[in-house]
Amino acid sequence: MEILKLVAQNRSDKEIAQTLQISVNTMRNHMQNILRKLKVCNREAAVWLANHLRWI
Asked: What is the pTM of this model?
């Protein structure tokens, strides 16, 4: 959920990775897993769904 919260704040991949103290590639892998699990095709849809479900 932390990644989705930061994406919702329009943070860049680099900013998110630095905030979470992980590599940019690890952050992107996590984001791809989130998109796949939520069955959405982009970050905007993931953030919308997370807001709609009151996860963030």
From this structure: 0.85
